Amino acid sequence: MSHDDLRENERTISQLVADASHDIQGIIRSEVALAKAEVSAGAKVMSKGAGLLVGAGIIAVFGLIYLFHTLAQVIAIWLPVWAGYLIVTVVLFVVAAVLGLLGKKALSGVKASPDRAKKQAQLTIAAIKDAARP
């Protein structure tokens, strides 16, 4: 083999490496585009579902209001109308107070500080410093 043949082979090998690199970049771009399309389609479906759930929640709240009116009117069979509404209102406030206290108790036990992450970061920094020492 002559020197020119080796040069030609080197150029071909370098060209093959460049082509392979270009192909890999194209594949990666295609995979990223596919992932974006899938996420976008999923987000559209999720937003539609979330909107429907919000609508259902609003209708349920209106239903509860009418249920409470009905309960007040049923109580009004035996008591005056105002007493029926007063009883329903007091029961609602008692339920709201109990739920509020339970929520407050649940939140008081929550630790918002990422203690484990801080400790892990400190250990990582210490390990890097130890590895860097001669």
Describe the structure.
1% of the residues are buried. Helix 1 packs antiparallel against helix 2 (81-108). The chain has 3 helices and no strands. The protein has one domain (3-132). The chain starts with a helix and ends with a helix. The chain is mainly α and 134 residues long.
Task: Describe, in short, the structure shown.
With 134 residues, the chain is mainly α. It contains 3 helices and no strands. The longest helix is centred in the N-terminal third of the chain and has 73 residues.
The overall pLDDT, averaged over residues, is: 80
Shape: elongated
Low-confidence stretches: none
- Helix % is over 70%
Strand content: under 5%
Q: What's the helix-strand series?
A: HHH
* Annotation field: number of helices: 3
| Biggest sheet character | none
Present the secondary structure layout.
Elements: H1 3-75, H2 81-108, H3 115-132
Helix pairs in contact: 1-2
Index terms:
134 residues; mainly alpha; 3 helices; elongated
